[in-house]
Amino acid sequence: MIRKLLRRAINVLRRDPTSASEPAAIPLARHGIHREAISSGARRTCETLQQDGFKAYVVGGAVRDLIAGIAPKDYDIATDATPDQVRALFRRSRIIGRRFQIVHVMQGGETLEVSTFRAAHDADTQKDEHGRVLRDNVWGSLADDAARRDFTINALYYDPVAETVLDYHHGVADLKQKTLRIIGDPRTRYREDPVRMLRAVRLSAKLGLSIDPAARTPIREMAGLMENVPVARVFDEMLKLLCSGHAVDAVHRLRDEGLHHGLLPLLDVILEQPMGEKFVMLALASTDERVRLGKPTSPGFLFATLLWHEVLADWEARKQQGEVPIPALFQAMDAVLDQQAEKLAITRRISGDIKDIWSLQPRFDKRTGKTALRLLEQPRFRAGYDFLLLRAQSGEVEMELADWWTRFQAVDGDERMAMLLPENKNKRRRGGRRSGVKAQEGKVPAVESGE
Ligand code: ATP
Ligand code: MG
Predict the structure, then answer these.
(1) How far apart are CA 164 and CA 24, in angstroms?
(2) Which of 248, 297, 256 is nearest to 277 (CA)?
(3) Residue of the nearest CA to atom 21 in ligand 1?
(4) d(Cα 248, Cα 266) in Å, to the nearest integer?
(5) What global pTM score does this model have?
(6) Which residue, judged by its Cα, is nearest atom 1 of ligand 1?
(7) Would you tell me how many other CB atoms lie within 10 Å of the CB of residue 272?
(8) Domains of the chain in sequence order
């Protein structure tokens, strides 16, 4: 009993970031990262800095991912050299960032982000009225740099010369035990930066970890703090979550933690309406599949799917008020995007892509002569067609319509021409169920083929 208590006390001490000034040096046999496994640019950058007498390590997500057997997206380097000293060592480099300077070092086709060790804030740090840290720009020691990071698995420093991992907070053990543990007191860390709650969910889904109860319990009660975070940061983090290849799992986890409200515009509303949920989940599953296959994903497509059922509802309301269908669709698109602009930092380029995909949808109803052939020539045809497939799979439109387009683009010449519906037949098919679109209990409008 006493031994158990003692062990627990020692563990608590070991987890206290302020007491972790001596790191464990984890050998190659345990962490498994050979220097050849990291990118040549990351390796060269560390070597150059070390040859000049500086400390330099690969840090953060890349080390974590390598130990977990995942190919890193990019490499961050941490060093005790100041930005000016880094800049002086690499001809192809530039200092970026105003609030906290970092250096972008170009090596071949790679860009490495090199940051000087930073300390967590102190009592004088500027915070907002909810405790969110507004500025944290003090340089510090390697131990300080480790303590200011969010999770133990993100505070690992890989030295490619010595092939060791410096571990201040038992991150390697946590990673091997598949546990996501926060550094320091979870409530304090979430108050300083509520985005850490979202990161906890995102990283636990990405790496298949369970969130340590101490880090998990406060999320539900503190979720409201997310409202206080600048829109652009939430958007960046959500985009990462949705494009992680584990979006379905991550969204389920967001719901389990009660964190989905107000995160993405109306994500909660969409997920509560069965047709919308089915559509969004199918879209996320297909995005996950693309990421796994190494295919590119487009944020435009993703957000077009997330907001589609909002557009459908708005469009339907306008048509019921007697508006002409196609102009009403464009009005609905603008209304939904404007409404989201407050919550989402959707760039102009992304919103252009979203509108392209949406506005193509009614055109898939026209299976006659020139109209159908012209749609095939559209630069965004492929995205529009992929979107149509999801609509069919979710039950919003007849599968027969999607199948027709699948076949229409696959066949050529005479066979394609033979598939076209006669002009007059199409005219008779205008509107209603026979246009190939199912009306769903008055909630989802039938897409009409009239202009
Ligand atoms: P990904 O692989 O998805 O990029 P990541 O952990 O590398 O995940 P980044 O946003 O690239 O995420 O952050 C790099 C590192 O910076 C993290 O590993 C972590 O050490 C630190 N970090 C990022 N965001 C925070 C935060 N909100 N609070 C504390 N440390 C953070
Ligand atoms: Mg990263």
Answers:
(1) 10
(2) 248
(3) 149
(4) 17
(5) 0.82
(6) 61
(7) 10
(8) 10-185 (3.30.460.10), 231-422 (1.10.3090.10)
